[in-house]
Amino acid sequence: MSKQPQPISPGKNFFAGGFGGVCLVFAGHPLDTIKVRLQTQPKPTPGQSPLYSGTFDCFKQTFAKEGLRGLYKGMAAPIIGVTPMFAVCFFGFGLGKKLQQKTPDDILTYPQLFAAGMLSGVFTTAIMAPGERIKCLLQIQTASGQVKYNGPMDCVRQLYRESGIRGIYKGTGLTLMRDIPASGMYFMTYEWLKNALTPEGKSPGELSVPSVLFAGGMAGIFNWAVAIPPDVLKSRFQTAPEGKYPNGFRDVLRELIREEGIGSLYKGFTAVMIRAFPANAACFLGFELAMKFLNWAAPNL
């Protein structure tokens, strides 16, 4: 069972989660760019070398050709979306916990925390799906040598003009397939490690900064261990030309397995795992600091 030292406040979770999300984007976006470029690089023809031989080669090529700005390509979309998205994500987790309590003092089991995390994955999809679609398109266009979009808003305009609102929300089903189980794992792992690292006689709220960073970083790794196969399918589907995969993710899955084998579902694994620890450590540290501030500034919120 998990230890819950104070009443759950979905409202505080909302504001603190937004701040945590901003911290996550700044810490993790460069490796997210690498991940998307690795996942969406074209299949080499026989005798031709792949565009990138791996994570570090992709990093070197991107930095050499585009500098630091290349690594932060497409960051405006997640920054605009990430504050409300993580706010809604942490709100959903707080609400999921509160809905399962019969009294404010009830301590939730780890399966209940997993269920609360899954609810947060449902809540975030409305923001996550279009944000991911825009981000992925902006991240791959420089690598492909064809600059079609001048920025996030131009990307939204063109997608809407070409396919309407469905074009902006392309990949929503795959985003749900990724985020529902991954979010459950994310929050359950964080709460479990927080409790495991809390010294006897102390509250998880008194955890040291290194312990929070470790718990947050490991939660990110467990999250992505679950999320990466549907994330590969999502990235490929969201950046494909219109009509390429008429049957959705099933067509993407069949093509990937047929042409590149089961290992293709773990494309970008190294980049994801290198990014997951610092980005999510920064996210949860930002969240915990914001919660401490809110508990001091607005204890009754």
Series of H and E elements = HHHHHHHHHH
Q: Unreliable stretches, pLDDT < 50, 5 or more residues?
A: none
- Into which percentage range does the β-strand content fall? under 5%
Instruction: Quickly count the helices.
Output: 10
Please tell me about this protein's structure.
It contains ten helices and no strands. It is mainly alpha-helical and 301 residues long. Helix 1 packs across helix 2 (55-71) and helix 1 (10-40) crosses helix 4 (110-144). The longest helix is centred in the middle third of the chain and has 35 residues, at 110-144. The protein starts with 9 loop residues before the first helix and ends with a helix. The mean pLDDT is 88.
Summary of the model, kept short:
This protein has 301 residues and is mostly helical.
List the helices and strands and how they pair.
Layout: H1 10-40, H2 55-71, H3 76-100, H4 110-144, H5 152-163, H6 165-168, H7 172-197, H8 209-239, H9 249-260, H10 269-297
Helix pairs in contact: 1-2, 1-3, 1-4, 1-10, 3-4, 4-7, 7-8, 8-10
List keywords for this structure.
0% strand, single chain, globular, 10 helices, 301 residues
